[in-house]
Amino acid sequence: MNPEVARETREKMLQDGYCVIPDILSQDFLRELRQESNRLNDTMEHHPDTKYQGTHLGIRYEDNEVMCRLAEWEPARQALEEIGFGDFVHAGSLIILTKEPFAPALYWHQDWMRWEDPLSCSPWPQTIFLSYYLEDTAIENGCFKVIPGTHLKRIPLHDQLVTAHEQGARFIEEDHPIMFSDHPDQVDLLTKAGALVLGDARVLHAARKNQTAERRNLLLLWHSRPETIPDYWDREIPPAVAERDPEATYSGSRIPGQYLQPKIID
């Protein structure tokens, strides 16, 4: 991408907490990933507690040559470099989060697990997810939903949610009125197969249910960066971040606390 598009893409990520980079995967590699994902979904056990998330198969790159190539896919790495995210590195594995035919929706949640750390209010992302949808997504087959800006701004929904995943949300009922609600500010992200969706771990997101008889395959990769100020950052640094003790130990927490306020921290 040219420098102007790269800046616009980074600004989208900084302001909204997500962005889309189209046409990252070649058609040949897309077909190969789809075939391998289907093979793994057909041969590996699906844990019943993850039905809302999808099939939730953890695949280590060292164990799977196809998925290892995705982790090292040069067009994706180049795109990260161009938008200033070249210091993000993967965690050594990915998760297959396929929505099987007629699978239920994924509840509202965010994935940041360090809410007691002042880095929680950093205006740049520290942990991101890279989502590769292997089919075109639509409302009918379980597209991604996101509430822009909620990585930096507290909204009432934050305080109404059941804590994410294994800490509670996996065990809710399918008709939970808040966890599966529509929100007036949500965006339904309709993507083309082969695009890359980047998301800040802190942003509130969900997915619609799959109303079709076909699988909707998703490969989810987690990346994190050093606890430093990014090279591209030339704006004010929040005092909590500037004064943070890098040697301190901060308790882990999935629940937003003092570092997520109703107004964006400039």
What tags apply to this protein structure?
6-stranded antiparallel β-sheet, single chain, Jelly Rolls, 266 residues, 5 helices, globular
What's the arrangement of secondary structure elements?
Elements: H1 3-16, E1 18-21, H2 27-43, E2 57-60, H3 65-71, H4 74-82, E3 89-96, E4 106-109, E5 127-133, E6 144-146, E7 187-189, E8 196-200, E9 205-207, E10 218-224, H5 239-242
Antiparallel strand pairs: 1-8, 2-3, 3-10, 4-9, 5-8, 5-10, 6-7, 6-9
Question: What does this protein structure show overall?
Answer:
It is a single chain. The protein is globular. It has 266 residues and is an alpha+beta fold. The model has no long low-confidence stretch (mean pLDDT 95). The chain is 19% helix and 18% strand. The two termini are 28 Å apart. A six-stranded antiparallel β-sheet has the order 1-8-5-10-3-2. Strands 4-9-6-7 form a four-stranded antiparallel β-sheet, with no helix packed on it. It has one domain (3-227): Sandwich (Jelly Rolls). The chain contains five helices and ten strands, in the order αβαβααββββββββα.
CATH level-two architecture: Sandwich
Low-confidence parts lasting 5 or more residues at pLDDT below 50? none
- Secondary structure class reads alpha+beta
Radius of gyration: 18 Å
**CATH domain topology:** Jelly Rolls
The major beta sheet can be summarized as:
6 strands, antiparallel
Strand content: 15-25%
How would you state the average pLDDT, rounded?
95
The helix fraction, in percent, is: 10-25%
How are strands sequenced across the largest beta sheet? 1-8-5-10-3-2
Shape: globular
Helix/strand order: HEHEHHEEEEEEEEH
